[in-house]
Amino acid sequence: MTSAFTRLDLSSWFPRTQTILTLLFVAAVGVLLPVPGMAIMASAVVTSLMVSAPFLGDERGRLDTLYGVLPVSRRVVVLGRTLSLIAYYLAAAALATVVTVLSTMVRGGRVEPEFLLIAHAAALAFVGLSMALQLPVFFRIGYSRGRLMAYAPVFVVAGLAWLLQATGAHVQFGKAFEGLPLATIVGVGVLIGAIGIVCAILVSARLYRTREL
To answer: Which residues span the domain enclosing 90?
Structure first.
């Protein structure tokens, strides 16, 4: 049932111009910017911005009412939507990786696999935390009332980056990761992302269960 709803959800919002444009943006970042990891991080950023897209489609197409009469539980809706968003992220991350490797080769360089792993771990951590922040809000109050949450993860990260830079704490922050094994750094990023996604599902399912459709 969850896989069927995931396919239904993807068909309702994935094949849209907005989705294609965000993927093209990821590719453009990989081609135009010389920093290899930027496209991978861009895939995480656009995923956080796309979290609101299916909820906007729900309101425009009155799909919330449809979900209320379909023989599916609220938990299935939450799981299916989360999986559809993860599918988008994986598509964006795969595109970012291919463009990063190819553009670096064209420039005569080479991307180290270790660097790609770290970039993907950081991107997954950002996606997981973004979902934990956004999904419960959208499932509880919908897109119209919660649309500003679409930009919350980007603003939070930008604010933290500015604060670290302004206080000089970014130096100590960078030193904290020096000397750590690659497996530890990647593992921490993956763990943060996984915990964020699980928390998003659990909290969203609880809040969506009490929402009137």
So the answer is: 2-209
